[in-house]
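--- STAGE predict ---
source: upstream dedup step, 1 unique chain passed
mode: sequence only
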Amino acid sequence: MLQLISRLTGVHWREQGPAFLVGFGHGGTHWIAAFFYLLLPYITRDLGLSYTDAGLLVAVFHLSALLANFGSGLIVDVTGRRVLFQIISLLIGAGALFAFGVTEQLLVLALLVTLIGASNNLWHPPAIAYLSEMYPGNRGYALSIHALGANVGDTLAPLAAGSLLAALTWQATAATGAAPVVLVALLIAVLLLRKDHRARVTTGSGMALSEYLLGLKRIARDRLVLGLCLMAGFRSMAQNGLLMFLPLFLINEMHAGPIWMGVAIMAMQLGGLIAAPIAGTWSDRVGRRPVVLAGLSVTTIVIAAITLIRNDVTLVAAVSILGFALFAVRPVIHSWMMDLVPTKLSGSATSLLFGTQSLLSAAVPPIGGLIADAYGLPAVFYFLAGTMLVANFLVYLLPHQDLRREE
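--- STAGE serialize ---
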Protein backbone atom coordinates (compact mmCIF):
# COMPACT_ATOMS: atom_id res chain seq x y z
CA MET A 1 0.00 0.00 0.00
CA LEU A 2 2.77 2.45 0.90
CA GLN A 3 4.58 1.69 -2.34
CA LEU A 4 1.37 2.28 -4.30
CA ILE A 5 0.87 5.67 -2.61
CA SER A 6 4.47 6.58 -3.41
CA ARG A 7 3.99 5.73 -7.09
CA LEU A 8 0.71 7.65 -7.35
CA THR A 9 1.99 10.77 -5.60
CA GLY A 10 5.62 10.80 -6.71
CA VAL A 11 6.81 11.16 -3.09
CA HIS A 12 8.48 8.24 -1.28
CA TRP A 13 6.54 7.31 1.84
CA ARG A 14 9.65 7.81 4.02
CA GLU A 15 9.77 11.47 2.92
CA GLN A 16 6.15 12.27 3.77
CA GLY A 17 6.54 12.63 7.54
CA PRO A 18 7.04 16.44 7.62
CA ALA A 19 4.05 16.97 5.32
CA PHE A 20 1.77 15.00 7.63
CA LEU A 21 3.11 16.71 10.76
CA VAL A 22 2.47 20.14 9.29
CA GLY A 23 -0.92 18.84 8.16
CA PHE A 24 -1.73 17.91 11.76
CA GLY A 25 -0.76 21.43 12.81
CA HIS A 26 -3.04 22.89 10.17
CA GLY A 27 -5.76 20.66 11.55
CA GLY A 28 -5.15 22.23 14.95
CA THR A 29 -5.80 25.76 13.66
CA HIS A 30 -9.01 24.62 11.97
CA TRP A 31 -10.07 22.69 15.07
CA ILE A 32 -9.90 25.97 17.01
CA ALA A 33 -11.84 27.94 14.39
CA ALA A 34 -14.45 25.17 14.05
CA PHE A 35 -15.02 25.16 17.80
CA PHE A 36 -15.63 28.91 17.68
CA TYR A 37 -18.18 28.60 14.85
CA LEU A 38 -20.00 25.73 16.56
CA LEU A 39 -20.09 27.58 19.88
CA LEU A 40 -21.55 30.65 18.15
CA PRO A 41 -25.25 29.60 18.24
CA TYR A 42 -24.97 29.02 22.01
CA ILE A 43 -23.01 32.23 22.62
CA THR A 44 -25.66 34.08 20.59
CA ARG A 45 -28.48 32.54 22.64
CA ASP A 46 -26.94 33.01 26.08
CA LEU A 47 -25.82 36.60 25.47
CA GLY A 48 -28.99 37.59 23.63
CA LEU A 49 -27.26 38.56 20.36
CA SER A 50 -28.98 39.15 17.02
CA TYR A 51 -27.76 37.60 13.76
CA THR A 52 -26.17 40.94 12.94
CA ASP A 53 -24.34 40.97 16.30
CA ALA A 54 -23.12 37.42 15.66
CA GLY A 55 -21.99 38.50 12.19
CA LEU A 56 -19.98 41.36 13.64
CA LEU A 57 -18.29 38.98 16.09
CA VAL A 58 -17.26 36.71 13.20
CA ALA A 59 -16.12 39.78 11.24
CA VAL A 60 -13.68 40.46 14.08
CA PHE A 61 -12.20 37.02 13.40
CA HIS A 62 -11.57 37.80 9.73
CA LEU A 63 -10.34 41.37 10.31
CA SER A 64 -7.79 40.19 12.86
CA ALA A 65 -6.69 37.50 10.40
CA LEU A 66 -6.28 40.25 7.80
CA LEU A 67 -4.16 42.40 10.12
CA ALA A 68 -1.99 39.40 11.03
CA ASN A 69 -1.11 39.07 7.34
CA PHE A 70 0.66 42.42 7.21
CA GLY A 71 3.57 41.23 9.30
CA SER A 72 3.55 37.45 9.14
CA GLY A 73 4.80 37.04 5.57
CA LEU A 74 7.62 39.55 6.11
CA ILE A 75 8.78 37.88 9.33
CA VAL A 76 8.69 34.41 7.81
CA ASP A 77 10.58 35.32 4.63
CA VAL A 78 13.18 37.55 6.28
CA THR A 79 13.97 35.25 9.23
CA GLY A 80 13.31 31.90 7.51
CA ARG A 81 11.97 30.54 10.85
CA ARG A 82 9.03 28.67 9.41
CA VAL A 83 8.57 25.90 11.97
CA LEU A 84 8.92 28.23 14.96
CA PHE A 85 6.09 30.45 13.79
CA GLN A 86 3.88 27.43 13.18
CA ILE A 87 4.32 26.50 16.85
CA ILE A 88 3.64 30.05 18.04
CA SER A 89 0.46 30.16 15.95
CA LEU A 90 -0.90 26.99 17.55
CA LEU A 91 -0.14 28.12 21.09
CA ILE A 92 -1.80 31.53 20.63
CA GLY A 93 -4.95 29.97 19.24
CA ALA A 94 -5.12 27.27 21.91
CA GLY A 95 -4.63 29.83 24.67
CA ALA A 96 -7.44 32.02 23.35
CA LEU A 97 -9.86 29.08 23.02
CA PHE A 98 -9.04 27.98 26.57
CA ALA A 99 -9.79 31.50 27.82
CA PHE A 100 -13.30 31.26 26.33
CA GLY A 101 -14.02 29.03 29.31
CA VAL A 102 -13.53 31.76 31.90
CA THR A 103 -15.56 34.68 30.50
CA GLU A 104 -19.04 35.63 29.35
CA GLN A 105 -18.19 39.28 28.60
CA LEU A 106 -18.78 40.18 24.96
CA LEU A 107 -15.79 42.54 24.74
CA VAL A 108 -13.45 39.92 26.22
CA LEU A 109 -14.82 37.32 23.83
CA ALA A 110 -14.21 39.72 20.93
CA LEU A 111 -10.59 40.11 22.07
CA LEU A 112 -10.15 36.32 22.23
CA VAL A 113 -11.73 35.96 18.78
CA THR A 114 -9.15 38.50 17.58
CA LEU A 115 -6.34 36.26 18.84
CA ILE A 116 -7.89 33.18 17.20
CA GLY A 117 -8.18 34.98 13.88
CA ALA A 118 -4.62 36.27 14.09
CA SER A 119 -3.24 32.84 14.97
CA ASN A 120 -5.13 31.29 12.06
CA ASN A 121 -3.43 33.50 9.48
CA LEU A 122 -0.09 33.49 11.26
CA TRP A 123 -0.06 29.75 10.50
CA HIS A 124 -0.40 29.80 6.72
CA PRO A 125 2.68 31.76 5.52
CA PRO A 126 5.25 29.62 7.38
CA ALA A 127 3.46 26.32 6.80
CA ILE A 128 2.74 26.71 3.08
CA ALA A 129 6.20 28.18 2.42
CA TYR A 130 7.81 25.30 4.34
CA LEU A 131 5.98 22.60 2.37
CA SER A 132 6.43 24.37 -0.96
CA GLU A 133 10.19 24.45 -0.47
CA MET A 134 10.44 20.88 0.85
CA TYR A 135 8.42 19.34 -2.01
CA PRO A 136 9.10 21.55 -5.06
CA GLY A 137 8.11 18.91 -7.61
CA ASN A 138 4.98 17.78 -5.78
CA ARG A 139 3.46 20.95 -4.39
CA GLY A 140 -0.08 19.92 -5.25
CA TYR A 141 0.26 16.70 -3.28
CA ALA A 142 2.15 18.22 -0.32
CA LEU A 143 -0.30 21.09 0.03
CA SER A 144 -3.20 18.66 -0.34
CA ILE A 145 -1.86 16.89 2.77
CA HIS A 146 -1.80 20.32 4.41
CA ALA A 147 -5.44 20.80 3.37
CA LEU A 148 -6.20 17.22 4.43
CA GLY A 149 -5.06 18.13 7.94
CA ALA A 150 -7.46 21.08 7.93
CA ASN A 151 -10.30 18.81 6.89
CA VAL A 152 -9.41 16.34 9.64
CA GLY A 153 -9.59 19.14 12.19
CA ASP A 154 -12.81 20.46 10.69
CA THR A 155 -14.27 16.94 10.56
CA LEU A 156 -13.46 15.90 14.11
CA ALA A 157 -14.19 19.26 15.74
CA PRO A 158 -17.94 19.36 14.99
CA LEU A 159 -18.48 15.87 16.38
CA ALA A 160 -16.30 16.60 19.41
CA ALA A 161 -17.87 20.01 20.04
CA GLY A 162 -21.41 18.68 19.51
CA SER A 163 -20.81 15.82 21.96
CA LEU A 164 -19.23 18.13 24.55
CA LEU A 165 -22.04 20.68 24.17
CA ALA A 166 -24.59 17.95 24.87
CA ALA A 167 -22.97 17.39 28.29
CA LEU A 168 -21.17 20.66 29.17
CA THR A 169 -21.63 24.41 28.95
CA TRP A 170 -20.13 26.19 25.95
CA GLN A 171 -17.43 27.64 28.24
CA ALA A 172 -16.34 24.21 29.45
CA THR A 173 -16.49 22.89 25.89
CA ALA A 174 -14.13 25.65 24.71
CA ALA A 175 -11.60 25.03 27.48
CA THR A 176 -11.60 21.27 26.86
CA GLY A 177 -11.15 21.77 23.12
CA ALA A 178 -7.86 23.65 23.57
CA ALA A 179 -5.92 20.67 24.97
CA PRO A 180 -5.35 18.65 21.73
CA VAL A 181 -3.93 21.70 19.97
CA VAL A 182 -1.25 22.17 22.62
CA LEU A 183 -0.23 18.53 22.17
CA VAL A 184 0.13 18.99 18.39
CA ALA A 185 2.30 22.09 18.94
CA LEU A 186 4.60 20.12 21.24
CA LEU A 187 4.83 17.29 18.69
CA ILE A 188 5.92 19.68 15.93
CA ALA A 189 8.43 21.31 18.26
CA VAL A 190 10.03 17.97 19.16
CA LEU A 191 10.14 16.47 15.65
CA LEU A 192 10.66 19.42 13.27
CA LEU A 193 12.13 22.44 15.06
CA ARG A 194 15.72 21.21 15.34
CA LYS A 195 15.67 19.76 11.82
CA ASP A 196 14.44 23.09 10.44
CA HIS A 197 17.20 24.95 12.29
CA ARG A 198 19.88 22.71 10.75
CA ALA A 199 18.39 23.26 7.30
CA ARG A 200 18.44 27.04 7.73
CA VAL A 201 22.08 26.98 8.79
CA THR A 202 22.99 24.82 5.77
CA THR A 203 21.04 26.71 3.10
CA GLY A 204 21.25 30.22 4.50
CA SER A 205 17.47 30.56 4.64
CA GLY A 206 16.17 34.11 5.01
CA MET A 207 16.87 37.29 3.05
CA ALA A 208 17.83 40.93 3.41
CA LEU A 209 15.01 43.43 3.91
CA SER A 210 15.91 45.38 0.75
CA GLU A 211 15.83 42.19 -1.33
CA TYR A 212 12.52 41.28 0.25
CA LEU A 213 10.92 44.66 -0.53
CA LEU A 214 12.08 44.53 -4.15
CA GLY A 215 10.62 41.06 -4.65
CA LEU A 216 7.40 42.00 -2.89
CA LYS A 217 6.97 44.97 -5.22
CA ARG A 218 7.27 42.66 -8.23
CA ILE A 219 4.65 40.15 -7.12
CA ALA A 220 2.28 42.94 -6.02
CA ARG A 221 2.26 44.19 -9.64
CA ASP A 222 1.70 40.76 -11.18
CA ARG A 223 -1.72 40.53 -12.84
CA LEU A 224 -1.94 36.76 -12.56
CA VAL A 225 -0.98 36.75 -8.87
CA LEU A 226 -3.48 39.49 -8.05
CA GLY A 227 -6.24 37.83 -10.10
CA LEU A 228 -5.64 34.54 -8.33
CA CYS A 229 -5.87 36.31 -4.95
CA LEU A 230 -9.16 37.97 -5.92
CA MET A 231 -10.66 34.70 -7.15
CA ALA A 232 -9.57 32.94 -3.94
CA GLY A 233 -11.13 35.78 -1.94
CA PHE A 234 -14.57 35.29 -3.46
CA ARG A 235 -14.34 31.54 -2.95
CA SER A 236 -13.33 32.14 0.66
CA MET A 237 -16.39 34.36 1.15
CA ALA A 238 -18.61 31.37 0.39
CA GLN A 239 -16.57 28.97 2.51
CA ASN A 240 -16.55 31.16 5.60
CA GLY A 241 -20.16 32.14 5.10
CA LEU A 242 -21.09 28.47 5.14
CA LEU A 243 -19.06 27.85 8.29
CA MET A 244 -21.05 30.58 10.07
CA PHE A 245 -24.55 30.27 8.61
CA LEU A 246 -24.87 26.52 8.05
CA PRO A 247 -24.87 25.73 11.82
CA LEU A 248 -27.38 28.56 12.35
CA PHE A 249 -29.55 27.16 9.52
CA LEU A 250 -29.43 23.67 10.99
CA ILE A 251 -30.32 24.82 14.52
CA ASN A 252 -32.87 27.54 13.75
CA GLU A 253 -34.47 26.40 10.46
CA MET A 254 -34.06 22.61 10.48
CA HIS A 255 -34.41 22.44 14.31
CA ALA A 256 -31.49 20.03 14.61
CA GLY A 257 -29.91 19.25 17.97
CA PRO A 258 -26.22 19.81 18.75
CA ILE A 259 -25.16 16.25 17.86
CA TRP A 260 -27.03 16.26 14.52
CA MET A 261 -25.53 19.68 13.77
CA GLY A 262 -22.09 18.19 14.41
CA VAL A 263 -22.84 15.21 12.13
CA ALA A 264 -23.94 17.48 9.26
CA ILE A 265 -20.89 19.74 9.48
CA MET A 266 -18.68 16.66 9.81
CA ALA A 267 -20.20 15.31 6.58
CA MET A 268 -19.14 18.46 4.75
CA GLN A 269 -15.61 18.12 6.06
CA LEU A 270 -15.47 14.41 5.23
CA GLY A 271 -16.14 15.33 1.62
CA GLY A 272 -13.11 17.60 1.71
CA LEU A 273 -11.09 14.95 3.51
CA ILE A 274 -11.50 12.65 0.52
CA ALA A 275 -11.20 15.33 -2.14
CA ALA A 276 -8.03 17.19 -1.10
CA PRO A 277 -5.40 14.48 -1.90
CA ILE A 278 -7.20 13.55 -5.11
CA ALA A 279 -7.44 17.13 -6.34
CA GLY A 280 -3.89 18.05 -5.30
CA THR A 281 -2.29 15.04 -6.99
CA TRP A 282 -4.47 15.47 -10.08
CA SER A 283 -3.50 19.13 -10.39
CA ASP A 284 0.20 18.16 -10.37
CA ARG A 285 -0.53 16.17 -13.55
CA VAL A 286 -3.21 18.08 -15.50
CA GLY A 287 -2.66 21.63 -14.25
CA ARG A 288 -4.31 23.83 -11.64
CA ARG A 289 -6.92 25.63 -13.77
CA PRO A 290 -9.22 22.70 -14.79
CA VAL A 291 -9.34 21.33 -11.24
CA VAL A 292 -10.25 24.74 -9.81
CA LEU A 293 -12.96 25.30 -12.42
CA ALA A 294 -14.56 21.92 -11.76
CA GLY A 295 -14.66 22.43 -7.99
CA LEU A 296 -16.03 25.98 -8.15
CA SER A 297 -18.80 25.04 -10.60
CA VAL A 298 -20.12 22.14 -8.50
CA THR A 299 -19.93 24.22 -5.31
CA THR A 300 -22.02 27.03 -6.82
CA ILE A 301 -24.84 24.67 -7.79
CA VAL A 302 -24.98 22.79 -4.46
CA ILE A 303 -25.01 25.93 -2.28
CA ALA A 304 -28.01 27.28 -4.19
CA ALA A 305 -29.81 23.91 -3.86
CA ILE A 306 -29.37 23.52 -0.08
CA THR A 307 -32.30 25.77 0.80
CA LEU A 308 -34.70 23.55 -1.19
CA ILE A 309 -33.91 20.47 0.92
CA ARG A 310 -36.08 19.62 3.93
CA ASN A 311 -35.10 15.99 4.58
CA ASP A 312 -32.29 15.54 7.11
CA VAL A 313 -30.61 12.61 5.35
CA THR A 314 -30.76 14.32 1.95
CA LEU A 315 -29.27 17.47 3.47
CA VAL A 316 -26.32 15.55 4.92
CA ALA A 317 -25.71 13.93 1.51
CA ALA A 318 -25.83 17.31 -0.24
CA VAL A 319 -23.52 18.86 2.33
CA SER A 320 -20.97 16.06 1.84
CA ILE A 321 -20.97 16.71 -1.94
CA LEU A 322 -20.58 20.41 -1.20
CA GLY A 323 -17.55 19.71 0.99
CA PHE A 324 -16.00 17.47 -1.67
CA ALA A 325 -16.14 20.22 -4.30
CA LEU A 326 -15.48 23.22 -2.04
CA PHE A 327 -12.43 21.87 -0.23
CA ALA A 328 -10.93 20.11 -3.27
CA VAL A 329 -10.12 23.55 -4.67
CA ARG A 330 -8.29 24.89 -1.62
CA PRO A 331 -4.87 23.11 -1.92
CA VAL A 332 -4.90 23.58 -5.69
CA ILE A 333 -5.20 27.37 -5.32
CA HIS A 334 -2.33 27.37 -2.82
CA SER A 335 -0.19 25.26 -5.17
CA TRP A 336 -1.03 27.55 -8.08
CA MET A 337 0.21 30.55 -6.12
CA MET A 338 3.43 28.77 -5.12
CA ASP A 339 4.02 27.93 -8.80
CA LEU A 340 3.95 31.62 -9.68
CA VAL A 341 6.31 33.25 -7.17
CA PRO A 342 10.00 32.89 -6.20
CA THR A 343 10.61 30.43 -3.37
CA LYS A 344 12.04 33.02 -0.99
CA LEU A 345 8.88 35.11 -1.29
CA SER A 346 6.46 32.23 -0.79
CA GLY A 347 5.60 33.36 2.73
CA SER A 348 4.67 36.85 1.60
CA ALA A 349 2.74 35.54 -1.41
CA THR A 350 0.77 33.38 1.01
CA SER A 351 0.13 36.44 3.16
CA LEU A 352 -1.14 38.33 0.11
CA LEU A 353 -3.42 35.42 -0.78
CA PHE A 354 -4.83 34.97 2.70
CA GLY A 355 -4.98 38.70 3.30
CA THR A 356 -7.28 39.07 0.29
CA GLN A 357 -9.36 36.15 1.52
CA SER A 358 -9.64 37.66 5.01
CA LEU A 359 -10.54 41.11 3.66
CA LEU A 360 -13.41 39.80 1.53
CA SER A 361 -14.50 37.21 4.10
CA ALA A 362 -14.81 39.91 6.77
CA ALA A 363 -17.69 41.42 4.76
CA VAL A 364 -19.71 38.20 4.72
CA PRO A 365 -20.78 37.89 8.39
CA PRO A 366 -22.32 41.38 8.78
CA ILE A 367 -23.83 41.34 5.26
CA GLY A 368 -25.14 37.82 5.78
CA GLY A 369 -26.47 38.80 9.21
CA LEU A 370 -28.36 41.76 7.75
CA ILE A 371 -29.78 39.55 4.98
CA ALA A 372 -30.82 36.89 7.51
CA ASP A 373 -32.50 39.44 9.81
CA ALA A 374 -34.36 41.04 6.88
CA TYR A 375 -35.21 38.08 4.62
CA GLY A 376 -34.43 34.91 6.59
CA LEU A 377 -31.49 32.51 6.64
CA PRO A 378 -32.24 30.79 3.29
CA ALA A 379 -31.60 34.08 1.46
CA VAL A 380 -28.03 34.08 2.75
CA PHE A 381 -27.25 30.92 0.79
CA TYR A 382 -28.25 32.56 -2.50
CA PHE A 383 -25.84 35.37 -1.66
CA LEU A 384 -23.07 32.83 -1.02
CA ALA A 385 -23.82 31.04 -4.30
CA GLY A 386 -23.42 34.42 -6.00
CA THR A 387 -19.92 34.87 -4.61
CA MET A 388 -18.96 31.44 -6.01
CA LEU A 389 -20.34 32.45 -9.39
CA VAL A 390 -18.04 35.47 -9.37
CA ALA A 391 -15.09 33.20 -8.49
CA ASN A 392 -15.90 31.00 -11.50
CA PHE A 393 -15.93 34.04 -13.78
CA LEU A 394 -12.57 35.25 -12.45
CA VAL A 395 -10.91 31.92 -13.24
CA TYR A 396 -11.93 32.33 -16.88
CA LEU A 397 -10.33 35.79 -16.91
CA LEU A 398 -6.96 34.68 -15.48
CA PRO A 399 -4.09 34.75 -18.01
CA HIS A 400 -2.90 31.31 -19.15
CA GLN A 401 0.56 31.53 -17.56
CA ASP A 402 0.81 28.87 -14.87
CA LEU A 403 4.55 28.16 -14.58
CA ARG A 404 6.81 29.29 -11.75
CA ARG A 405 8.60 32.56 -12.32
CA GLU A 406 12.32 33.02 -12.05
CA GLU A 407 13.87 32.56 -8.62
